[in-house]
Amino acid sequence: MEGHRRAWRDRNPRPVPRPRLVLAEVTADEGGRTRVQVVLEHAGRQHIGRAAGVEDELRLTAEATLSAVEQVGRRPGHFHLVGVQRIQAFDSPAVLVSIRTTDQRSLRLLGCVPAEMDLVGSVARAVLKATNRLVERLIAEADGL
After folding, report:
1. Contact 34, 28 (CB under 8 A)
2. Which one of 20, 81, 89, 125 is most buried, counting C-beta atoms within 10 A?
3. Structure pTM?
């Protein structure tokens, strides 16, 4: 018998210069293990990040998203997830992620988005909000621009 499955899928594809979230999917098995797959699209290519464990699914979603972001920026291990938190921002729930870069500058990046009905998609979008500008720079450096 298989566990439950939830997914968020982009229904409005459009070309953008930054990585675009295509899918954030969580699968939990009966043993309490959770698997997360996040698919990003950039420059016509898909980048798949995965994370698995018994940790909180929001943290696993952020880790899977960072894995895909690092593929886009061609810098494996460049980001470290500090934390993920659901917060109350004034009169609306939100998701906040904190990320550090692992280079010598050790930048702290924050991303916050409204917590929609689907928290998994919200967490993935918060990671993208935190990392997008830096990822653009990493891509340009990798391409020699």
Report:
1. yes
2. 125
3. 0.85
54: Cβ contacts below 8 Å, ≥ 6 apart: 32, 33, 34
The Cα–Cα gap between 78 and 106 comes to 10
Tokens matching residue 45: 């290519």
Which runs of E-coded beta strand occur in 19-129? 20-28, 34-42, 45-53, 79-89, 92-101, 108-114
- Chain segment 19-60, per-residue pLDDT in tens: 999 999 999 988 889 999 999 999 899 999 999 999 899 999
Of 95, 104, 102, nearest in space to 130 by CA = 95
- The torsion angles phi and psi of 94, rounded to 5 degrees, stand at -145, 165
